[in-house]
Amino acid sequence: MANPLKGCVTYTPDNVPIYGYRPSLPAAIVFCIVFTIPTVLHVFQLYPKRTWWLSIFVIGGVGEIMGWASRGWAYGCPYNATAFMMQLACLVLAPNFFTAGCYIALGRMITTLGRQYSPISPRLYLYIFCGCDIVSLVVQAVGGSSAAAAFNAVPPGNTKPGTNIMVGGIIFQLVSITVFLVFFCLVIFRAWGELKHARAVNLVALATVVSIMAIYVRCVYRTIELLQGWSGYLITTERYFIALDGAMMVIAMVVFNIWNPSTLLGLAPVKQSGNSSRGELAEKVQGEPDRAEDSDQVIEHVVMPKQVA
After folding, report:
1. What burial letters (b/e) apply to 74-97, b meaning 16+ CB within 10 Å?
2. Which of 40, 164, 184, 204 is at 20 to 30 A from 52, Cα to Cα?
3. What is the pLDDT of residues 79-89, one digit of tens each?
4. Cα dihedral across residues 212, 143, 24, 20: positive or negative
5. pTM value?
6. How open is the CA angle 127-309-211, to the nearest 5 degrees?
């Protein structure tokens, strides 16, 4: 493979870029469009009720757009080092905003259902698991810098130590997501009785599961990809990157457009108007058979406690 350059050199089949292939321009254009649509839609969905925490999906979407735009740039300049580093940095960083959105979504669900269903407070999900994501990113950045330095050396050095550090960061993130899924399942199990009468919360839970599993699939793919090395089969075959990275992140983002927490849970930043929790209200509604079918509507109109940061 050719070393990355600062200028723009026309692609030649005999001079293989660092990607192991020439990035696809149609794929870059399609993903730029596909990520732009849900990003703009998230802006319109969060604004009416000022659900600002959903802007985290907008930030992640912008990161994906920049990453795929960089790959479009790399089609014309496949040996350009800046294009390579931009697409790498953006497409590694952006998914972390989607995982943060999942962490906050669970916290909102707990606030809606009742604090008693979770072993930790809603706020801690964001602090603990986003903290783990930051650690993972730092480790990946250190490993990536080390591997890039070795690759760009003259003559090229050993990239394996840096690559192994990157793999360690991704594995740490996989473990973190796995622990989050355990907490998620525990909350769902404990609140199962109330969830039967809270369709809105069920849909947000479904969106969270679909999103986090798409992110999980991507993490597994990136782990195997890097274990094979920078010249391995997965990393030098673009169709796998398109299907297991790009497409997975589209799913992780779009699912929250379809089942939007702002719309379903009515998470407007307003003050609490009473002492009854949603859980208490749900139980009250369940006790009145003639009103049970309206439980979702009643629960959704209860004023939320103070937002989780």
Report:
1. bbebbbbbbbbebbbbbbbbbbbb
2. 184
3. 988 898 899 88
4. negative
5. 0.80
6. 70
